[in-house]
Amino acid sequence: MIESLKKLIREKIESEFNIEGLVVEEPKKGLADISVPLFQYAKLWKMSPVDVYNKFSTALTMIEEIEKLEFSNGFLNIYLKRKKIAEGILNSVLVNQENYGQSEVGQGKTVVMDYSSPNIAKSFSVGHLRSTMIGNALKNIYKKSGYNVVAVNHLGDWGTQFGKMIVAYQLWGNEELIRSNPIIELQKLYKRINDEEKINEELTQMARDAFRKLEQGDPEYIKLWQWFRDESLREFMEMYELLDVQFDSFHGEAFYNDKMDRVVDMLEEKGLLIVDEGATIVDLSASDLPPALIKKSDGATLYITRDVAAILYRYETYHADKLLYIVGNEQQLHFKQLKAVTDLMGYNFDLEHVNFGLVLVDGKKMSTRSGKFTRLDDVIKQAILDAKEAITSKNPDLKDQDMVARKVGVGAIIFNDLKNERHLDVDFNLANMLKFEGMTGPYLQYSSVRIESILKENELNLKDLDASYYEEDHYFEVIKQLAQFPHIILKAQENNAPSIIARYITALAQGFNSFYGKQRINVEDSKHKNANLLFISSIQIVINEGLRILGISPLKEM
Question: What topology is assigned to 2-80 in CATH?
Fold first, then answer.
């Protein structure tokens, strides 16, 4: 409601005086509810700010939500009918519950999101967490904004590394060991063949030959590849279940093997292919980009060929209006080339690379070779153990301690990732993530639990409520925050930025806790008490919905 009022004020003044770019803002606490700076127009029209105030004021007289207008230090200050507006906002939250902030801006449009995409026969690492959780949050944000979303997990299930895996298994593999602990054993084999080929060049050729047989459909090799894929996917699904992440498709790289010839033929038909030193390329110099390599000199197709095939499939199968790729910063050139190639083909796909930074430990890039935090599974288990220790020390009689610890531990890891602007690197420090104060997941969950404990002991009666209390600053400042939620969702969607929601619900929780420190909730006067209960109920609804969108479970006790 506040945002729509600001928009109405802007439109009224701009249309009345034929101007553009009017600034309508919310000043600092203790001042007016909304203000308009006048200096720019005083200078433009060569008149005093008071005269500009008098002109602008005439355009706002018919807006019924305005209590009064006032000139102060070069600003048009607007005071709202706080009681009326507060009632409207709080009742809207209470009536709509988790649907508060829902919009239809994406009605009738489909977004295909490509995220997570771990490699087969390798552990799901902390490094995969960023793509997975940013993608999951964006899926929820877009759905909240009315879009149809197709979530695609483009598994890394093809490539020369599978030739290596097959050779390593044939030479040193133990089926029983692999079945008992598939990913760890497969990774051991992969590491061994990489080490061995440094002193035995024949292994490199054997791996190439094995992958060629795999590409040609050798039944034995296909069976091994399928086994490696199935075992990997089984472990990945356990991780996705723990993170509460779901996908609509697990079509990986292998799925597009029989779809790449069509891409090459289309590029050929349009006269886009050039043979350069034996390799087949598309010249992208008109876009100030290096050439896109379509085929190597040995005729093998490459990632960009496969990605074009994937785009065409998604466009034709899902009728995608928008394609999002949630992939690290280091792939920016690849996606610029991908967009340029499809543009040259005559398409104009709305294709966006949602890039993100690295996960750092002690300021250094996380490496699987370091042996520190290589498996996300190990990290989450440690987070859950640490969370349980902290929870039981605070509340030893808590029921379902394991469930609560799991949700706190997982939520802490997710929030630590999403609170940061995605293009920045993320510091991975479990001790900091699990703190119950500051900008953390446990702080938000605890704020909601604090409200829950009050509501559990008191029943809200809307018929016995005095809304005039909401006119006081310490109420109305938080109510203005609640009013922003629909706007925050749209802003997060437009910028593909879950961090906008993370920062918003943190500020809202801080607003509540500040209020809680000033104002007794369970007062004797029933009208005041019910005003308080409606107020904190609305705060909890929005915090919990914000957490849900980010992929974090709200709690009732902790």
Answer: Gyrase A; domain 2 (3.30.1360)
